[in-house]
TrEMBL record:
Function: Part of the tripartite ATP-independent periplasmic (TRAP) transport system.
Protein name, UniProt field: TRAP transporter small permease protein
Spans through the membrane: 21-38, 50-69, 90-112, 153-174
Compartments where located: Cell inner membrane
Protein topology in the membrane: Multi-pass membrane protein
Organism phylogeny: Bacteria, Pseudomonadati, Pseudomonadota, Alphaproteobacteria, Rhodobacterales
Organism: Pukyongiella litopenaei
Protein family according to the UniProt entry: Belongs to the TRAP transporter small permease family.
Gene Ontology CC annotations of this record: plasma membrane
Source domain of life: Bacteria
Amino acid sequence: MRVIRAYVRIIDAVNLRLGRVVMYGIFVMVAVLLWSSVSKTFFLPSLWTLETAQFAMVAYYMLGGPYSLQLGSNVRMDLFYHNWSDRRKAWFDAVTVLFLLFYLGVLLYGGLGSTAYSLGYWGDQPLAFFAGLATGAEEIGRVERSPTAWRPVMWPIKVVMCTGVLLMLLQALSEFFKDIARLRGVEL
């Protein structure tokens, strides 16, 4: 129980701090879009603004998701849920979070494959590719670029996306542990 309590405390602290920092990322996106409007009106249009705003929104959304899950501010169909007892809510959440964990695991595996592809790996074993990168047995190939006129490399935003999915997976596991503890009458 001590290990689970430490896990919940660490994951919640990481996602709380990261979420509070990332929530200011909306201002980055607004600044980029404001510059886009100004440059299109008074100067030559900038090629980089739209994709930079999209990348900022992806980072905002993916890295802020675990914080949202932790606060319970995620969207849910609340037809019956609000009338249930805390114990029944914990039971229902503990069961449904298992589906979320499965979905996030599949999403993370696909994201790792896409990230490996963006680093020039053409095979079908992305985990082996990343292990090979860490040991020096693999090397980065031809990097994927966006097909737009600006042509930024894609791997940094894919790494951010994988990081966000991993943090969401860890936070969902933390929520699962909290629900099980509530069912047992223990607070974490």
